[in-house]
Design brief:
45% helix; 10 strands; single chain; Beta-lactamase; alpha+beta; binds glutamine; five-stranded antiparallel sheet
């Protein structure tokens, strides 16, 4: 795969030179401190190779990419009962929208908007021990990426909690409707801490490998979730992983992917690769601008689209 090595390097070089980089998230004050100049890309292929370029080993705040791993944890613990609390339809709205929740009786559209993710966090949190939820996600991420040092960035977690009034509003509203069953404070603590987990593109690409491989982590041979669950999570990533830009992302890239406002995106080419990209500047919908551009180039050059008959 010499071509892939060249391609990854060429994409990173082009992105490094780009002057249109989007805007770094500022509504969580701690995230605003990150420079918009970063760009990192790692492709972990099904045959066990890794292709990296740019800031591949710099840690960043994974933010909403954590919603993916929280869902994996919730499905492993509760199976299909998860779907009593959260739906499986794209919302067509902003990630932190409140309006749809009231119109639809408190049940969030999908697990990747904030309301849905908070409902999932509730499912994995022991109400009497708020540290359990984020702890479970950390354990999973460390195991999948082989990096025992992955941790929560305390300053980001604090910044989220101090400014997370919209998320608190969503949580209390869902509690009033019986969608949350635990203690709101414990559930929010899980949510804020999972969003504040810091990881590099290299570790994130490794952590996503089970999703290109039918639910089995190729590094350890361990089954993380069933093949059906992996397929379904990929479907949700494709339809809901980029909020109100999910259709556009499917149109441009054509791969299941989950973004976060830290500027990271984890994308899955089933049977082929797990790809992590990071560039902190965002589009108006809160998705990495250059991350999306890089994935579009990579997917087109490699023919990696789930809509490609040869994938
Ligand atoms: N922690 C962020 C929030 O709750 C996550 C949002 C995101 O990454 N889209 O607003």
């Amino acid at each position: 795969m010499a071509d892939l090595a060249r391609l990854v390097a060429a994409i990173a070089a082009r992105m490094a030179a780009s002057t249109e980089r989007g805007r770094v998230a500022s509504y969580i004050p701690e995230l605003a401190k990150v420079s918009g100049d970063h760009f990192g890309l790692v492709v972990a292929t099904a045959d066990g190779q890794e292709f990296a370029a740019g800031d591949a080993d710099t840690e960043f705040s994974i933010q909403s990419i954590s919603k993916l791993f929280a869902l994996v944890e919730a499905l492993a613990q509760h199976g299909d009962a998860v779907w009593r609390r959260v739906g499986r339809e794209p919302s067509g709205g902003a990630f932190n929208s409140i309006v749809q929740l009231e119109a639809e009786g408190g049940k969030p559209r999908n697990p990747f908007i904030n309301a849905g993710a908070i409902a999932v966090s509730d499912l994995i949190t022991d109400p009497d021990d708020p540290r359990t939820g984020a702890g479970r996600i950390l354990r999973l991420l460390r195991e999948l990426s082989g990096a025992p040092t992955i941790a929560v960035d305390g300053a980001v977690a604090y910044s989220e909690a101090a400014t997370g009034h919209r998320n608190a509003a969503l949580a209390h509203f869902m509690k009033a409707h019986g969608i949350l069953t635990g203690k709101v404070e414990a559930t929010l603590s899980t949510y804020f801490h999972q969003c504040a987990i810091a990881m590099s593109c290299r570790h994130l690409a490794r952590a996503g490998r089970f999703l290109m491989n039918g639910g089995i982590d190729p590094a350890s041979g361990q089954r993380i979730i069933s093949a059906e669950q992996a397929r379904r999570i990929n479907a949700l990533m494709l339809t809901c992983g980029h909020y109100d830009a999910s259709g556009e992302f499917a149109f441009l890239v054509g791969l299941p992917a989950k973004s976060g406002v830290g500027g990271g995106i984890l994308a899955i080419a089933p049977g082929r690769a797990s790809i992590a990209v990071w560039s902190p500047g965002l589009s108006p919908q809160g998705n990495s601008l250059l991350g999306t551009a890089a994935l579009e180039e990579l997917a087109n050059a490699m023919g990696w689209s789930v809509f490609n008959p040869e994938l």
